[in-house]
Known about the structure:
Blueprint: H1 3-47, H2 53-78, H3 81-102, H4 106-119, H5 124-136, H6 140-153, H7 158-170, H8 174-187, H9 192-206, H10 209-222, H11 227-239, H12 243-256, H13 263-276, H14 279-292, H15 297-309, H16 313-324, H17 330-341
Helix pairs in contact: 1-2, 3-4, 3-5, 4-5, 5-6, 5-7, 6-7, 7-8, 7-9, 8-9, 9-10, 9-11, 10-11, 11-12, 11-13, 12-13, 13-14, 13-15, 14-15, 15-16, 16-17
Amino acid sequence: MNFFNGHKVLLLLVLALMVSYSGLQAQDLQQQKQQKVVEIRDIDKQLNDNPSAEQYDTLIEKRKKIEAEIKDINGKLMADAEVMKKINAAKKSYNEGNTALKLGQYQTAISHYDKTILMDATFYKAYYGKGLAYYRLRKYSDAVKAYQGAAEQNPSYVNSYIEMGRVYDKLGQVDYAISAYKSAVKNDPTSAKASYQLGRVYLQKKKNYNKAAQSFMQATTVNADYDLAFNMLGVSLTELGRYEEALLALENALSVTKKKKWKEPYYRKAIIYNKQGKYNSAKSAAEQSLTFKKNYAPAAYEAGKAAKSLEQFDQAVSYFQICAKDRQWKRTADYEIDLIVNREKYGG
C-alpha cells in the first residue's frame, strides 16, 4: 500500500467514525430533548394543580430554564448534517400535508402528517394538522386525540387547546370545552383568542355572565382592537344589568372595528336604551342597525318596542311587520301588532 492509498483509507475510517459519532450524538440529544419535554409536561401538571403564588413563580422559572435548554439542544441538532436531512424530510412531508389539506384532500393530508410524525415524533404542528383534517372529515374523536398529541409535544402551542375546545363545543361537551380553553389561557395568557373563546362558551352555553365578562375583559386587555370581544363584553354586561359599562364596551367595539357595516353593536345598544327607558335613543340605534340589514328582525323588534313606547303606533306596527317576516320572531311580532291594533281590546 503506497503513502497516498494508506492516507485515503485512514481518511475514510476517520469519516466513518465521525458519522457514527454524529449519529450517536444526535440520538443522545434527541433523548435529552424528549426528557426535557417530559419535565415540562410534569411542570404543567403542577401548574394545573393550583400551586401557591411562590410555587407558581418557581415552576414558571424552572419551565423557562428547561425551554432554554431545549432551544440549545435544537441548535446542536440543527448543526448535525444527518439530523438536518431528517428534519428537511419531515418538513417536506409536513408541507405536503398542508397542501393536501388546503385542497380538501383530507385523508391524503393525514397520511403525510403521519409520515412526518414517524420521522419526528416531536413535530407538534403535524399533530395539529391531523386534527384539522380529522375535524373536516367529522371524525371528532380522532381530531381530539391529534390535538392532544400537539399539546403534549408543545404545551405552549395554544391553537391545539383552542381547536380542541372547538371540537368539544361541537359535540356539546361544554365542560370539556371550557377545560380546553382554560388550558389555552393558562399556557398563554396573552392569547386574546383563547380568552374570547372561553368567554363565548360561558356566555352562550353556561349563561355565566360574570365569568364571560371576565374572559372578554381579558381578551380586550390583551388586544385593544378586538372588536368581537368588546361586542360580547357588551352583551355580558347587559345581562348583568351593568348598562353604562355595556354601552362603553359596545362603543369601543364600533370604534376599533374595521367592518364597514356591522349591525350587531347598534342592535345591542338599542336593547340597553329600551331597558333604560331612553326610547328615542333606542329607536335611533335600532334604525342604524337596520340600515346595514333592512330585514334584521332583532333590530326591527327593538325599533318597534321603542316606537310603541313613544306612542308612534303606525311606525311600531311597520317595524313589527318587518320582524314578523322572520319565522323565529313571527309569533312575538304578531302578538305585538295585535296589542297595538286592538289596543281597546287590551285596555290600552
